[in-house]
Amino acid sequence: MSQMQAVFLPGNKQVEVRSVAVPEVGPDDVLVEMHASCICRSDLSLYYGSAVVGGGAATGGFVCGHEPAGTVVAVGEAVTEFNTGDRVAVYLAIGCGVCEHCRRGDMHLCPKWKCLGFTTDGGNAEYLKVPAQNLLKVPASMSPIAAAISTDAFGTLFSACRKVGVNGLSRIGIWGLGPMGSSGVLAARALGGQVVALDPIAERRAFAASLGADLVLDPLDPQAGDKIQEFSGGHGLTGAIDCSGNTAAHNMALDALAPLGRMAFVGENAETTIHPSNQLIRKQVTVFGSWYFGINEYQDILRTIEGHGIDLERLATHTFKLEEAETAFRMFDERQTEKAVFVR
């Protein structure tokens, strides 16, 4: 077990599967044998060579992959809460452990944080070494693919839904129905909200409807805004989540919000243009960014998945072996897949 296969993204659409040493665990570390590791849209920033996390530090020098799940195969001498054989997902943010954000469970907000797959080695490999505190125990009934998707995809949207305040009285709009938006449909419905889901791709709309969306719309339909108003009884949406990063979607969502509504920006975009006077100020709307989730939220994430019988494997449209990484990233980049997962 001295060598393993691992995937690197050096940029310019290059994908390299290299043989590297299996990492040795330190006192506080664990070694996880990977069984599933997802490709995320943010990985394409590494694929192209313009990482959205880490800036110049993230140049493809690390094993990629920030949505991993597997089985613990070795533990450091100081590790007491995990054992070999434990089935786990992995939290992507490694924090300093002592700042106010880490102590609150928000390691992804730590000023010294490292991100799996971007600024430290990630999960697109046969094995992954991480601090034991980053492990997320999963139930025996949860498959490795579901465990991997429960983190960045579902967990991020679960957290966004809670920040938006989704409950049984909510009317929520979700723009962009890739894996994130589809996860948002599942999370918002599980939390009791009525959901209108919007995407210009007909297949994505049909899939969102099968996941329980109350109304699916093509945002390019000139009547879409009127249909949202009808859906909301003429009052507007109580909440909106944008997973597209598209400026037109930002404006459409803000226009659709009711007074005192809340909107989460989830989709990446370097810049956008909105109209603060009419969209924010006059309606006293709250707009915020929502990225990933606090590690302290994971038990609620699991309870929601289990309690509502949510089948996260439905979101995985394609699976690949590590040696197929070049094909996997090319197909993902060309949108021939939705959620793509490396499996062993």
Q: Between the first and last Cα atoms, what is the distance in angstroms?
A: 16 Å
How many runs of DSSP E, i.e. beta strands? Answer: 17
**CATH fold-level topology of the largest domain:** Quinone Oxidoreductase, Chain A, domain 1
Net shape: globular
Mean pLDDT: 96
The number of domains is: 2
CATH homologous superfamily annotation of the largest domain: Medium-chain alcohol dehydrogenases, catalytic domain
| CA-based gyration radius | 20 Å
Which regions have little confidence, pLDDT < 50, spanning 5+ residues? none
Based on secondary structure, the structural category is alpha/beta
- DSSP helix fraction: 25-40%
Name of the CATH architecture of the largest domain: Alpha-Beta Complex
Total number of helical segments?
A: 11
Top-tier CATH class of the largest domain: Alpha Beta
User: Could you spell the SSE succession in H and E letters?
Assistant: EEEHEEEHEEEHHEHEHEHEHEHEHEHE
Strand content: 25-35%
The biggest beta sheet is recorded as: 7 strands, mixed
Cofactor: Zn(2+)
Family: Belongs to the zinc-containing alcohol dehydrogenase family.
Domain Enoyl reductase (ER): 11-342
Organism: Devosia pacifica
What would you say this structure looks like, in words?
The chain is an alpha/beta fold. Helices cover 27% and strands 27% of the residues. It is built from eleven helices and 17 strands. It has helices at residues 43-48, 100-104, 144-149, 152-164, 179-190, 202-210, 224-231, 247-256, 276-281, 298-307, 325-333, and strands at 3-11, 14-21, 29-39, 68-75, 87-90, 93-94, 114-115, 127-131, 135-137, 171-175, 194-198, 215-217, 237-242, 257-265, 286-289, 316-320, 339-343. Strands 3, 4, 5, 8, 9, 16 and 17 form a seven-stranded mixed sheet that branches. A six-stranded parallel sheet has the order 12-11-10-13-14-15, sandwiched between helices. Helix 11 (325-333) links the parallel strand 16 and strand 17. The protein is globular and about 65 Å long. The model has no long low-confidence stretch (mean pLDDT 96). Its cofactor is Zn(2+).
